Amino acid sequence: MSVATRIETPGETAYRQIRADILFGRLLPSQKLKLDGLREHYGTSVSTLREILSRLSSEGLIVAEGQRGFEVAPISAKNLKEIASLRQLLEAHALEQRYRGVEKLRLAISPSAHFSMRIASLDADPRGRL
Description:
Layout: H1 10-23, E1 32-33, H2 35-42, H3 46-58, E2 62-64, E3 70-72, H4 77-108, H5 111-120
Antiparallel strand pairs: 1-3, 2-3
């Protein structure tokens, strides 16, 4: 069986690139987005760009200014605090999950296997302590 390869359209490629440029700060918060410049840079039509920017607007990454165009969504101190708080939660959760994995592994080793491992380590301890 072969796995079908999904071919990405130029519009999907431009969407991913613009989104990444926003998330990685290559397009700055509150930066005005000129359609002609975007068209040249991302190599897609103005109508496709309007669709992409509307999609990014629904994701909160772009602000549509009515008839005046689009700009990258601004970022506030509140946004940064929220991001930092979420990151703390995720990192604490990841550490907890890692510790649980190590603890499960330790408990899975039978007492006799654990003792055998300690005996084998005597060679490394010149004092001969368990």
